[in-house]
Amino acid sequence: MTPADFLNNSHSDIVELESLLTSIPAIAPEGDGDGETKKCDALEAWLKQNGFARNGCTIERFEAPDSRVSSGVRPSLVVTIPGKDDSQRVWVMAHIDVVPVGDLSLWNTDPWKVIEKDGKLYGRGVEDNQQGLCSAVFAGLYFVKNGITPANTVKLLFVADEENGSEYGVKWLLKNTSLFRKNDLVLIPDGGDSQGQTIEIAEKNLLWLRVHVMGKQTHGSRPDNGANACLAACALSLKLHELEKIFDKKDKLFEPDYSTFQPTKREKNVDSINIIPGEDTFCMDCRILPCYSLKEVLEQVDKCCREVEAQYGVKVEYATPQKSESPATSVDAPVAQKLAAAIKKTHGIEPRFIGIGGGTVGAELRREGIDAVVWSTLDDQAHQPNEYCVIENLIKDSLTLIEMFQ
């Protein structure tokens, strides 16, 4: 049986697995949920029933302790399909957790019950990230059901806590296990476009700033008696924004192709228009091309702060709620080239390598020297009401994975 025939004949099984997974909310405590344990249990049982724990295949469970959930742990699963060559393994990493439904009134159907309509499956999590999870499962199932040994050992990782920072997921696994090897090939099917053309190989460095400016409060009519923290904060936010002119290189891999330093959130200061505030707090979201280190960026941030302090007679402190930097995966890396060849063969299109401004778990692996790429064919329904997955996309992605495994 050809891979295409196998997958087309698996339509009802795909809907069954998507329906099972959607019916069990796996929401983190940050979203008032109880974690992934029940959903992980159901997935593990389904995998065992379908042969993933027989004939040399194994299922391993890794549990990160978390006292906030009733089970006390945040579980991840690793399925191993032994290959002819175990010196370099091919990983597909999808996440089990989902986000809350949001405003229920915006949904046309029950978000926890899969509805199939016009070639689509509707429900929370069906695309993010169950499409990637199911495409990996059914690619692996092709080899298991047909007694075919893949060229390289295949590892399917179904991980916890992707939606809230991965502290109990990939980060925990990297700190507490030796699952990965430096030469492993890792595909993360959790981002892409509707044609399946773009392969994400790099991320901009991320820097969030929370800047606290301290001056002296006074009456609005007597600025000479105080130090206007609001005025100094405005000047500083503009000065930090101007760092785009210092870190001014461009890279066509990204959109936009330059580093961005953007003022965003501003916190409440005083209650009356006629009060000059003695304190003011604002935030910056900075997305910086990976050719620049965060160390050199923060040196310039410090310089801007000292200049504003001297000019306005204030004191400036800042925190970095988030900061992240990671190297890019080379377009010549084996995982990038292997995936590109598979896309070209199964989708009939020329793939395109891109970088993104957002963050993915790929960065965690790249920091450890492991090449990772992010790819999928999807309509970008993540976190939206009436989230859907196009069944044809799931099948085409599974076909692409089978080509990678052969």
Give a brief rundown of this model:
The chain is α+β, with helices and mostly antiparallel strands. It has ten helices and 18 strands. Strands 1-2-6-3-7-17 form a six-stranded mixed sheet, with helices on both faces.
What count of helical segments does DSSP give?
10
Strand share of the residues? 15-25%
Overall pLDDT level: 97
What gap, in angstroms, lies between the N and C termini? 15 Å
Low-confidence spans: none
Considering DSSP H and I runs of 4 or more, what fraction of the residues is helical? 25-40%
- What structural category do the secondary elements indicate? alpha+beta
Please write the string of helix (H) and strand (E) elements: HHHEEEEEHEHEEEEHEEEHEEHEHEEH
List the keywords.
406 residues, alpha+beta, 6-stranded mixed sheet, 5-stranded antiparallel sheet, 18 strands, 30% helix, elongated
